[in-house]
Each structure stands twice: as structure tokens, then as C-alpha cells.
Amino acid sequence: MPDTRQRLIDGTIETIRQHGIAGTTARSIAAAAGVTQALVFYHFGSVQNLVKAACLAVTRDRLPQFEQRLAAMRRPADLLTLHTDERARGNLLVLAQLMAGARGNPQLAEATAAALHLWLTPLRATLRRLLPDHPTDGLAEALCAALLGLELLDAVDPSATATALTALTHPPHLVKPETLGRGLSSTPSEGKPPSERE
């Protein structure tokens, strides 16, 4: 059986998944962990400290599997499967809730940013591997923002989430097939309308 600290961390993550950050209290965490409320304060001092510890702990625990999943990817489009994988595990929901709770809460914001950084580091490396001939600055952050946005959208309109995922996976008419093969235009005039070419 996990020790009390680990049970409290697991109970916190489960509480966030079930009730959101607003419903994450000493009472709800203790109920999920199967312990008394007093143990929340005995081991962590406050609910906020426990939430911060849980945020980092669950990210560190998941990171080896996440990195293994990234290492197996062979195309940039494979990255979109992260939405399905991490959503099924409830990780996107937890991160989205933590980011929502971080507004006006500098301590939680710091812990959430640290957890997000743990995800971003291997994502950046994967993007550089998959797109060796293209600049990738900011792409990892954009991908995280898209995945979290899809999670928030799914809470209010699941059909819109499905439509968005389809559009991201198969973006019609956004790029020409030959452009995908060779990268960006090789000359300044390529890609301009005929009327603007010299």
C-alpha cells in the first residue's frame, strides 16, 4: 500500500480530475485518499502545498513514458495523438485545471510552470528531430496551448473538439503537397501571387 504522502498526492490528482481545482479541498482530498483531513496539514502544511507537490510529482512520474512515446514518433502529425493519450489518462484535464487555478496564485503558477517545463523540454527535442530543416522556436509551446485548448473546448462542445482535431490532422489547402516535401520556398518570389512576382 502506498505511504500516506503518496496516497495524498494520488488523492489530490484524482480530486482535481473529478471535481476541478475549485472543488479540491482538504475534505475532498482526504476522502479520495482514504485518510483524515489532519494528515493533509501534517504532511504538507496546506492544501496549496499539497496541490503544488502533486502537480510536480504526477508530471515526473509520467515523464519516462511520455519521452518513450515521443521517441517512437516518426512524423509531426504523430504529435496530435498526444491529445488522445494524455486526455485518456486525465493529464490534460489536470494541467488545464492547474493553469486555471494559477490565475492570481503566484505559488501555484510557479509550480504549474515548472511542471509544464518538464513536458516542453522533450517536446522541443522531438520537434527538432522531426523538423530538422525548419525553425521550431515556439512550436512546442504552441502545441501545448492547442492541446490544452482542445481539452477546455471539449468540456463545452465535444463535437467542436472532434472537428478541430480533424482539421489539425488533415489541414485542407493550407499547404501544397510539393511544399511539404521541400520545405519553404527556395526563392523570395515563390509563394507570391503571380501579379506580385518580378
Please explain how this structure is put together.
This protein is an all-alpha fold. Helix 3 packs across helix 4 and helix 6 crosses helix 7.
Structural class: mainly alpha
Helix content: 55-70%
Main β-sheet description: none
Number of helices: 10
Counting DSSP E segments of at least 2 residues, the number of strands comes to: 0
Distance from N terminus to C terminus (CA atoms, Å) equals 73 Å
Using only C-alpha atoms, the radius of gyration works out to 21 Å
| Averaged pLDDT | 84
Q: Please provide the ordered H/E string of secondary-structure elements.
A: HHHHHHHHHH
Strand content: under 5%
Q: What are the low-pLDDT stretches, counting only 5+ consecutive residues below 50?
A: 173-194
- Overall geometry comes to elongated
Write a concise synopsis of the structure shown:
The chain has helices at 4-19, 26-33, 37-44, 47-71, 81-88, 91-101, 106-130, 139-156, 158-169, 177-182.
What are the salient characteristics of this protein?
198 residues; mainly alpha; 10 helices; 0% strand
Helices and strands in order:
Elements: H1 4-19, H2 26-33, H3 37-44, H4 47-71, H5 81-88, H6 91-101, H7 106-130, H8 139-156, H9 158-169, H10 177-182
